[in-house]
TrEMBL record:
InterPro entries: NR_tyrosine_phosphatase, Prot-tyrosine_phosphatase-like, PTP_cat, Ptpn1/Ptpn2, Tyr_Pase_AS, Tyr_Pase_cat, Tyr_Pase_dom. Its main location: membrane. It holds the Pfam family Y_phosphatase. Its EC number is 3.1.3.48. The active site is at C221 (phosphocysteine intermediate). GO terms for biological process: negative regulation of ERK1 and ERK2 cascade; negative regulation of receptor signaling pathway via JAK-STAT. Substrate binds at D187, C221, S222, A223, G224, I225, G226, R227, Q268. This is protein-tyrosine-phosphatase. PANTHER family: TYROSINE-PROTEIN PHOSPHATASE NON-RECEPTOR TYPE 61F (PTHR46047:SF3). GO terms for cellular component: endoplasmic reticulum; nucleus. Belongs to the protein-tyrosine phosphatase family. Non-receptor class 1 subfamily.
Amino acid sequence: MAHIEEEFQKIEHENGWNTIFRKLANDHGVRTLEKKNDIALLSTNRGLNRFRDVLPYDDTRVRLQRGSNDYINANYVQVPWANRSYILTQGPLPTTSEHFWQMVWEQNSRVIIMLTHLVEKGCNKCWLYYPDYENESEIYFDEIDLKVTFVSERQEDHYTQRKFELTNLLTGETRPIVHWSDFDWPDHGAPSSPEPFLQLLCDVRHCGAFDSRFGAPILHCSAGIGRSGTFVLVDSILKMLAHTDNPNDISLIEVLAHIRTQRHGLIQTAEQLRFSYMAIVAGLKELDELEQSEGLFNESDFDGSTESDNDDDSKISRSLENINYELKKRAELTTNNSYSAHTTNDAETSLRLREERLKRNEGIKKKIDEIKAKLDEKPSSLSSSLFNNNNNESILTILMTKYRRHFFIGLLTLVTGSIFLYKFVRISDRTY
């Protein structure tokens, strides 16, 4: 039994999660006594913070490189023993969405992990900072000369993978971005089971989030400390355990204390600390699979020209289904959480227009199929009607039964006309 599992069982048996969490908070206060966040408290920057008490430390904050103000509520978080680097930030606000994408570009990041919903329990937790299919397939940020374009979406059992293209409008350079979101994780709480979280972690690793050729992955929830901090702790501890000969030397509490000195308040509740232990214990049983899943970021995944037409059609079909599902989900979400009337109407209108468009497309396709079927049947039907009726009767039989009178009259007329014509020709010849 791993020592971390023994620690978990001991704390669980003693019901000591609140005690160990308070002790961790006290230790954090001592370690960060001289840490400052003066830049975040400047009058020009206060409105750029989602929460007044979640501010980035000055020494580890991410600095924007372009513009008169370099501030964004984000920190570098590094775990050298795991050879891991992350960027943790708050959920973007309407006024900071362009700063967020500017950071993505300047840090050369390729992967974004969003561990919050836009709205939770009727409260706004994050601004919709990425393209929203129907209303906006692309978003322009003119002040920073960037454009974000929606590429595709894949709906998994517990979360969603989206792909975007981030384009620099000045240079024309385009970079692919993988975006993970819609994971069911309540604010200040923890998932009901570690298995879906470990699957998300496995997929994030597999998509190349930690490829050293590019910048660190960017994680955010609402404040960028609770759920994001839990992800960092679990991923880094499992990475350390996979590459050590002395697992007993690894202290989860020490690693947590270390990353807390880089961004304030990582892991917000005792429940999240308990879940971190649970996820690590469960992850130990899948450690080899997690390690094997880690791969390089593959930019060719965004190039659809190498795939067959059938693959393209199936991907488009899946994307349409997933988009329709997402729009329905968002329409229900806006209703349940009492969004403003304008937002609700927009979501419902967007859903209605998409459903009408899909119905029209289905109707057009059905008509085309019917026309094709008729064209295919016409030659055979024509030939069949010339020689046979429904009872396989010949034309001669039909003429001698249904149209007998007309047939004989026509025949008599033909014979009489022929005789008169013959006599006329003979008389003309004699006269000549």
